[in-house]
């Protein structure tokens, strides 16, 4: 080798090594490197010394931080890029040994000993030919395994005869890591360099063979369509190769969990059987997934895990009083249940059915009951459920099978004795998929539910410790056998006074907090609240009342932000500014006694109401006309009433041919509103009798009750709501059936105060109390006509 010393501008390379014969693009941005390239471009040969630094992160490396062997390269192209970056195209010429590095500004300058291979002679004998062929074979084997080198490049190298050129081309084209390229660069002995290159090629081919072997083994073990399974097997095989396969299998985890599970013997046997099946289905992904889900469900069920029973009567009473105003019957029943539980330690859990109009707080009562008993609370909405599988679960043979809502609710609660609310049980429907009501029979029967069998679990589930509470708006749609299993507690409409207390204690604080306000910013006077309840809402519950309070809070919040007011007072006078004009007005009692007009009382889904029944008698042919959207029951009541009046016509001096010569028209105003129910019989009979005889009916009196053909007065329901409606309308006297006296005794004085409630058991009493003694001209005329015919 000729030894030549050159002083060249130097660039320290990061993460790359350039070999002689390589043409490479690279970017430089360090000021010293940029200055070195620019300096090299000013020389005649445009040569530069490129040497790799040992640490990639070093910003200004010294001589000790650089490799000693680099490459003398010539610059072929220079491109300026934004942000002071230069893109340089260089071609490696010869090796160079770094003798001395001069760290002068603005660039690095090195004394370099040029190491040339020009004087190396390759023997033309068989040894040289063997070396060339061997290198070509190793390169061809690598290229075949790698698959990343183009056919053109392979063909070009195979055509090279010169061993030196062949070694340089192979070193440049094979993507060795830069540290391996540095090893080839630093090997100055040509023959040792040949051995090193050959060793690295053979090593690369072996690595690719091992990789291919691993991939082949994995491919044989797994189904090509199961991506997740492939990933698991690859991980498993790699761990086996490394000797690190110590992970616990899923089956072992299930067995460990099964040992810790508190469950009956039957459940544990079933669980172990399914775990054994899971092990045997390892290579059947479809069955394996179904079995895994089933085992996980069994492990999550609280078979023998129960919440601690709390029997603190005082705490329960305080919670119920805090959360709800009124509802004394419900609170009393809960406290009775707790008292029995305290004495027996294990009493039969009752199945309570809370029945009442919407918005009366049935669902919130169940939530408060759970808090009072310190039990986990689970709510299951049954509205619109029509598939029996929703209750009993799907059989495992179905795709996407899952436990029923009852079993899933127990799993969610985490204990076997939660409080479970079955909401809207009256809205369950039935179709060809099964009778959902019948599925609920076993759930809600205390004699059967200790062995409730969910189709998915296939094991008996004990529901005897669950405290079931159901809610419904009406009992009409609930089948009798199901209703017989529940203890019905009626939640009636709230009085205006109760609504006032509920609004003050619960609704107003809740809405103020919800809208970011406090009592200092917005104040509703009591008179304003009374007007809000009376004139802007008409409902049995308090849902609409809460919405109206929310409307006031929203408008107040806007006003506070716009006007910067610190306090807004809502009074009876300025209420219309926030809620508009009054929505509801009550039809007050008539001021004067009239003929053929009687005030009846009716129950609606939003509380009680009064019905003014009007009857006119006119010459005709004996027809009876009924108008006002009357239902079938009310039409029957009207016909029954007229038949009763005809049966007593002679006693009251009504002519025998009166009903043949007159038409009777019964009308109830508000014709667009459907009306039906068995409670308007005596009202219509009294109105017709008044119109026929011409006797006036007391204006301050209202009545409710059904009538028979013989004039007996039958009992009715919804008495509380009806009396509230009478009171709101300014009625002083109310006639009620004799058999409803016990209902009157249960009512609070708040409802009955100011009302004279008179029990009646026959129409004779009704007519005597309702009709005035004053007779009109028409009544005298009918009476005289009747007397003449008798003679």
UniProtKB/TrEMBL annotation:
Is Lipid metabolism a UniProt keyword of this protein?
no
Q: What does this protein do?
A: ATP-dependent serine protease that mediates the selective degradation of mutant and abnormal proteins as well as certain short-lived regulatory proteins. Required for cellular homeostasis and for survival from DNA damage and developmental changes induced by stress. Degrades polypeptides processively to yield small peptide fragments that are 5 to 10 amino acids long. Binds to DNA in a double-stranded, site-specific manner.
Q: What Enzyme Commission number(s) appear in the record?
A: 3.4.21.53
Where does the Lon N-terminal domain lie? 8-205
Q: What is this protein called?
A: Lon protease
A GO biological process held by the record: protein quality control for misfolded or incompletely synthesized proteins
A Gene Ontology molecular function term for this protein is: serine-type endopeptidase activity
Question: Which residue ranges does the record assign to the Lon proteolytic domain?
Answer: 592-773
InterPro entries (UniProt xref): AAA+_ATPase, ATPase_AAA_core, Lon_bac, Lon_bac/euk-typ, Lon_lid, Lon_proteolytic, Lon_Prtase, Lon_prtase_N
Upregulation: By heat shock.
Q: Where does ATP bind?
A: 356-363
Q: Which residues cross the membrane?
A: none
The organism sits in which domain of life? Bacteria
Recorded source organism is Mediterraneibacter butyricigenes
Subunit architecture: Homohexamer. Organized in a ring with a central cavity.
NCBIfam families documented for this protein: lon
Q: What class of enzyme is it?
A: hydrolase
Subcellular localization(s) per the UniProt record: Cytoplasm
**Gene behind this protein:** lon
Reaction it catalyzes: Hydrolysis of proteins in presence of ATP
GO terms for CC? cytoplasm
Q: Which Pfam families match?
A: AAA, Lon_C, Lon_lid, LON_substr_bdg
Q: Its family?
A: Belongs to the peptidase S16 family.
């Amino acid at each position: 080798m000729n030894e030549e010393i050159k002083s060249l501008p130097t660039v320290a390379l990061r993460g790359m090594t350039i070999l002689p014969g390589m043409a490479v693009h690279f970017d430089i941005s360090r000021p010293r490197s940029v200055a070195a390239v620019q300096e090299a471009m000013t020389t005649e040969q445009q040569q530069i010394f490129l040497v790799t630094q040992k640490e990639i992160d070093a910003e200004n490396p010294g001589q000790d931080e650089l490799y000693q062997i680099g490459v003398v390269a010539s610059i072929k192209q220079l491109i300026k890029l934004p942000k002071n970056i230069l893109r340089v195209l260089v071609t490696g010429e010869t090796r160079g040994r770094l003798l001395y590095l001069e760290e002068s500004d603005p660039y690095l300058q090195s004394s370099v000993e040029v190491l040339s291979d020009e004087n190396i002679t390759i023997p033309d004998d068989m040894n040289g030919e063997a070396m060339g062929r061997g290198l070509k074979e190793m390169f061809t084997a690598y290229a075949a395994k790698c698959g990343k080198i183009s056919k053109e490049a392979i063909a070009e190298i195979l055509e090279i005869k010169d061993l030196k050129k062949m070694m340089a081309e192979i070193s440049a084209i094979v993507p060795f890591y830069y540290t391996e390229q540095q090893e080839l660069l630093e090997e100055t002995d040509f023959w040792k360099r040949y051995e090193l290159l050959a060793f690295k090629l053979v090593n690369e081919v072996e690595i690719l063979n091992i990789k291919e072997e691993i991939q082949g083994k994995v491919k044989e073990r797994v189904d090509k369509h199961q991506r997740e399974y492939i990933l698991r097997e690859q991980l498993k095989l790699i761990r086996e190769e490394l000797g690190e396969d110590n992970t616990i299998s899923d089956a072992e985890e299930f067995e460990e969990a099964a040992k810790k599970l508190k469950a009956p013997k039957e459940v544990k046997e079933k669980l172990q059987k399914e775990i054994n099946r899971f092990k045997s289905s390892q290579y059947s992904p479809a069955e394996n997934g179904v079995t895994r889900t089933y085992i996980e469900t069994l492990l999550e069920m609280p078979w023998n895990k129960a919440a601690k029973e709390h029997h603190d009567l005082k705490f329960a009473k305080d919670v119920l009083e805090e959360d709800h105003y009124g509802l004394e019957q419900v609170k009393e029943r809960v406290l009775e249940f707790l008292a029995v539980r305290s004495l027996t330690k294990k009493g039969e859990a009752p199945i309570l059915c809370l029945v009442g109009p919407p918005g009366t707080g049935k669902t919130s009562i169940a939530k408060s009951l759970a808090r009072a008993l310190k039990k986990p609370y689970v709510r299951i909405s049954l509205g619109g459920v029509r598939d029996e599988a929703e209750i009993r679960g799907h059989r495992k043979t179905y795709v996407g099978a899952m436990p029923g809502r009852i079993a899933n609710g127990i799993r969610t609660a985490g204990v076997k004795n939660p409080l479970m609310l079955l909401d809207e049980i009256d809205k369950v429907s039935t179709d060809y998929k099964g009778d959902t009501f019948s599925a609920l029979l076993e759930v809600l029967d205390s004699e059967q539910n200790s062995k409730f069998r969910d189709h998915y679990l296939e094991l008996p589930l004990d529901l005897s410790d669950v405290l079931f509470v159901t809610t419904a708006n009406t009992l009409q749609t609930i089948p009798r056998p199901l209703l017989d299993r529940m203890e019905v507690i009626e939640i009636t409409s709230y009085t205006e006074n109760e609504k006032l207390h509920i609004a003050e204690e619960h609704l107003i604080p809740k809405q103020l907090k919800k809208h970011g306000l406090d009592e200092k910013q917005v104040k509703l006077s009591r008179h304003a609240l009374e007007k809000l309840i009376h004139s802007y809402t008409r409902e049995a519950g308090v849902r609409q009342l809460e919405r109206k309070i929310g409307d006031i809070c929203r408008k107040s919040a806007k006003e506070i932000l716009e006007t910067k007011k610190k306090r807004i007072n809502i009074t009876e006078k300025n209420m219309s500014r926030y809620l508009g004009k009054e929505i509801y007005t009550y039809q007050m009692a008539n001021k004067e006694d009239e003929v053929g007009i009687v005030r009846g009382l009716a129950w609606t889904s939003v509380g009680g109401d009064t019905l003014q029944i009007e009857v006119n008698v006119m010459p005709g042919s004996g027809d009876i006309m009924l108008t006002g959207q009357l239902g079938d029951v009310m039409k029957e009541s009207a016909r029954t009433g007229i038949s009763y009046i005809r049966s007593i016509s002679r006693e009251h001096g009504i002519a025998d041919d009166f009903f043949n010569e007159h038409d009777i028209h019964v009308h109830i105003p508000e014709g667009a509103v459907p009306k039906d129910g068995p409670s308007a019989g005596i009202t219509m009979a009294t109105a017709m009798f008044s119109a026929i005889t011409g006797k006036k009916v007391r204006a301050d009196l209202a009545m409710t009750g059904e009538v028979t053909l013989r004039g007996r007065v039958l009992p009715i329901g919804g008495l509380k709501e009806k009396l509230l409606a009478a009171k709101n309308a300014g009625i002083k006297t109310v006639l009620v059936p004799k058999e409803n006296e016990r209902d009157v005794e249960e009512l609070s004085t708040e409802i009955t105060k100011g009302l004279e409630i008179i029990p009646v058991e026959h129409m004779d009493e009704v007519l005597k109390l309702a009709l005035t003694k004053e007779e009109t001209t028409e009544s005298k005329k009918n009476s005289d006509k009747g007397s003449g015919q008798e003679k």
